[in-house]
Amino acid sequence: MKSTYLVILLLIILANTSPAQSELELTIEVTNIKEIIGTIRACLIADEDDFLSHCYKSKNVVVTNSKILLKFDNLDAGTYCISIFHDKDDNEKLNRGGLFGMPNEPYAFSNNAKRVFGPPKYNKCTFKLVKDKKMVISL
Description:
- The protein has helices spanning 2-16, 122-125; strands at 24-31, 39-45, 57-62, 68-75, 78-87, 107-109, 127-129, 133-138.
- With 139 residues, it is mostly beta strands.
- Strands 2, 3, 5, 6 and 7 form a five-stranded antiparallel sheet that branches. Strands 4-1-8 form a three-stranded mixed sheet, with no helix packed on it.
């Protein structure tokens, strides 16, 4: 009988000490903003299939300086990617019209992944989030 109580007590203790969902924070400093107009729009991507099509979470910050901070909180540990653009005219989309349909508003990706004739590959933009993290992305 005593051992039954010990097993039940052990199960209760284990149930109450199981790891909680991660609540990590990602802070992004966006630099090299050339014009103090519009909005910086950031897309946090959590799955390769969503790259350039769907945001896991998004943030929009009105441009008031040549650099701004964006914060994503309550994130689980995992692999992520960030895409950002400077929506100068606040029409909520990345304007295209440059040579060969290239965007004519500034844009960038996590890891400051290089863009050559289009966006970089997903794996060039990814990073692991295992603890609170701060990164700098230059437009």
